[in-house]
Write a structure and sequence with these properties.
Distance between the termini: 86 Å
Number of strands: 0
Strand content: under 5%
Shape: globular
Mean pLDDT: 79
Oligomer: single chain
């Protein structure tokens, strides 16, 4: 049998394709590891080094530094509660952290369930900062950046529009009847589905387990290898995580661009994202497995930047991811991790309020999806004309504005 030059070229091409696919998998691990490392460092900066887990949490023995509690202390005002949720989730890169922390505060402080609902709304917006930041990996290529930034902030605008729709209704009903819409529905759902006993175990985060060796290796290298102190090491972890995250993203984008072959395009276009229902299910399923809507939505950003997907295909995928993360929180809230039955019941109610927020928001804004999509595309076009405004958008929208509102109420209070 004679092997022709075209056969050799075809075999070489196939090997290159598989090598690039393997490289994408390795880079995805680096991307996820970088995100986890950054989150670990940020949470470490907020933790109280003197906290003793063997003793009950009291005013003196608390797991986080006083500044974290001081921020949450102003969440009793609905508007401040919203911005507390945005700021806390943006800083700690985890809506699960914000929700769990809020549950503990509802039980141990004067913060009420109806006030905690606004924090959960803010957490939904704050979790968007991750995929918005991911889009900056495309900043050097104008059209790629426009596509990537638009696909990232469509998540922001959906959550923002959902808040603008549901928050006034929640507040108005609370003032009129003493109980807001989400509070009422979530309390009813918690009573109907939760009987006060554990019905399951907190799901294992396989993704976290997979990248944990990388995180601990980097942390050990900084503390034991370089001899850095705890605070300096945690700050360094944040920087290392950011560097790993963006380096992986840049290389993923370049590799995907080389993989934009007909078959690869067809796989995304004709299989995973062939219609809105399929994209929604893919987003929901991936988030339930990965247990992070930030990661799942961030994975789509370089694909849009590379031209594999469009913002219209990503929008239902984003809504699915938003709902998927609430299922994870709901399953976790049924577990026995709460200290008391009262705390467990509040956790279940808050998990339901998070789920209902996304369901009702999707019911309103998916039929009118052209609104958030066109808003995102319009802002992306403007930002690409002056890219510094992209950084301004992230810094002010997720950090300066929320912190400013909290400080303002602190001064007035």
């Amino acid at each position: 049998m004679t092997i022709t030059t075209s056969d050799r070229a075809g075999a070489q091409s196939r090997w290159k394709t598989w090598a690039r696919i393997l490289l994408v998998v390795v880079l995805l691990y680096g991307f996820l590891g970088g995100m986890r490392t950054m989150s670990h460092g940020l949470k470490g900066l907020g933790k109280n080094p003197e906290f003793d887990e063997s003793h009950p949490v009291t005013a003196v023995n608390r797991p986080y530094r006083d500044i974290v509690y001081d921020v949450f202390a102003y969440a009793d005002n609905p508007l401040v509660g919203l911005f507390v949720g945005i700021l806390a989730t943006s800083l700690f890169q985890s809506s699960s952290f914000t929700t769990s922390f809020t549950v503990a505060l509802v039980v141990t402080t004067p913060l009420q369930l109806h006030q905690a609902v606004y924090v959960v709304m803010g957490a939904n917006i704050g979790t968007c900062v991750t995929n918005t930041g991911v889009s900056f990996a495309h900043v050097r290529r104008r059209h790629e950046f426009e596509r990537a930034f638009g696909s990232a902030i469509v998540h922001d605008f959906f959550n923002l529009l959902s808040v603008l729709t549901l928050m006034p209704i929640e507040y108005a009903l609370y003032r009129l009847t003493g109980q807001g819409l989400l509070e009422r529905l979530s309390a009813w759902a918690a009573g109907a589905f939760y009987g006060g006993a554990a019905v399951g175990e907190k799901p294992t985060n396989f993704l976290k387990e997979a990248v944990e060796p990388l995180v601990h290796g980097l942390e050990g290298g900084l503390t034991e290898g370089l001899g850095l102190g705890p605070i300096v090491a945690e700050a360094a972890l944040v920087l290392v995580g950011m560097g790993l995250l963006f380096a992986s993203l840049v290389l993923i984008t370049r590799t995907l661009r080389r993989l934009v072959l007909h078959r690869v395009e067809q796989f995304f276009d004709k299989v995973l994202f062939r219609n809105a229902v399929t994209a929604y299910i893919v987003g929901l399923s991936l988030t339930f497995v990965v247990q992070s809507s930030s990661i799942v939505t961030s994975l789509a950003v370089p694909m849009v930047g590379a031209g594999l997907l469009t913002i219209y295909q990503v929008f239902p995928y984003t809504l699915g991811a938003n709902l998927g993360t609430t299922f994870t929180a709901l399953v976790a809230s049924f577990a026995t991790s709460a200290d008391t039955p009262e705390q467990a019941a509040v956790g279940v109610a808050l998990a339901f309020s998070h789920m209902l927020f996304n369901i009702l928001g999707g019911a309103v804004w998916y039929p009118a999806r052209w609104v958030p999509i066109e808003m995102a595309r319009g802002v992306a076009r403007k930002v690409c004309d002056a890219k510094r405004y992209a950084a301004v958008y992230v810094v002010i929208g997720f950090f300066v504005l929320p912190a400013g509102v909290i400080v303002l109420f602190w001064l007035l209070g």
